[in-house]
């Protein structure tokens, strides 16, 4: 399979343990990481790169619902997207495409501009899965704008499906990492857009994950989170039973507005459909976001 991280982009990464700078040690092919490892210049930690995928997480930190859901995604990764496409209209009353279009406007992709020096803006998707949101990004971006898209996920099975999608459909140059949303392997203020779709309620510590997303986002950038929440108007037995089956992994799936980092502004909570919320917010320049460690 193709590699997804150029050697020159190692500078974007940071050690998940101490946030120190990482250096590449290993074999590259065509300017892309292939096999070897990344070492931290500060704490000395080493992070392997296997088949082109940097593995920037500690297995001992994967526990509880993180471990459960990773096992499910790794078990049947190729069925996830087809089942989502099939079941969404039956359960939600909207097609999957319609549901996705409802939140993509919150990314404000049409206002993205190149970084200082002409460097492409960076977009991060936490929990990228099989890459179902990539076509939305391509359609919503301003014509001719070059961007760097980074995606992290704990499921190597889902990332394998994402790589197959990239080989089949593009876009080329998407950077993929095996990483934990609770300890994102990036320095502060690295990304111009950050979003997470369909995973926050399943994280063992949603507040910590939200803090990490806010930490790596540039001040003022929109952060968007989407996941399950039952619409207060959906009172039928069918809706309640279906929702309970979808959210078996947690007792109280809801919009985690109360867990947003201190200082968050421009907070907007919307009910996208019977079963899904969309939460968007920003961090102002003066807010200090360190993420819980």
Automatic annotation (TrEMBL):
Residues annotated as domain Methyltransferase: 123-220
Domain of life, source organism: Bacteria
GO-annotated biological processes: methylation
InterPro entries xrefs: Methyltransf_25 (IPR041698), SAM-dependent_MTases_sf (IPR029063), Trm112-like (IPR005651)
UniProt-recorded Gene Ontology molecular function terms: methyltransferase activity
SUPFAM superfamilies: S-adenosyl-L-methionine-dependent methyltransferases, Trm112p-like
Originating species: Archangium gephyra
Protein name: Methyltransferase family protein
Keyword list, A-Z: Methyltransferase, Transferase
């Amino acid at each position: 399979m193709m590699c997804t991280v150029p050697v020159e982009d190692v500078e974007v990464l940071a050690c998940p343990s101490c946030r120190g700078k990482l250096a590449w040690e290993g074999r590259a092919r065509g300017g892309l990481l292939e096999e070897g490892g990344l070492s931290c210049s500060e704490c000395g930690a080493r992070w392997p790169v296997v088949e082109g995928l940097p593995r920037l997480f500690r297995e001992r930190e994967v526990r509880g619902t993180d471990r459960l859901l990773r096992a499910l995604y790794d078990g049947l990764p190729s069925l996830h997207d087809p089942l989502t496409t099939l079941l969404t209209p039956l359960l939600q009353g909207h097609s999957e495409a319609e549901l996705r279009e409802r939140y993509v406007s919150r990314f404000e992709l049409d206002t993205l501009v190149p970084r200082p020096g002409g460097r492409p803006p960076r977009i991060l998707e936490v929990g990228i899965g099989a890459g179902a949101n990539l076509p939305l990004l391509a359609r919503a971006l301003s014509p001719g704008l070059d961007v760097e898209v980074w995606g992290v996920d704990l499921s190597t099975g889902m990332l394998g499906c994402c790589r197959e999608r990239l080989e089949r459909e593009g876009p080329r140059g998407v950077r993929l990492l095996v990483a934990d949303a609770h300890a994102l392997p990036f320095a502060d203020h690295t990304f111009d857009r950050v979003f997470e779709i369909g995973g926050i309620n399943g994280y063992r510590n949603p507040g910590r994950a939200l803090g990490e997303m806010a930490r790596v986002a540039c001040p003022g950038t929109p952060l968007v989170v989407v996941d399950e929440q039952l619409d207060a108007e959906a009172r039928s037995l069918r809706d309640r039973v279906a929702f309970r089956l979808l959210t078996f992994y947690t007792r109280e799936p809801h919009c985690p507005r109360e867990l947003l980092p201190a200082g968050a502004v421009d907070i907007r909570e919307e009910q996208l459909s019977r079963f899904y919320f969309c939460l968007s917010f920003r961090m102002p320049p003066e807010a200090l976001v360190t993420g819980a460690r």
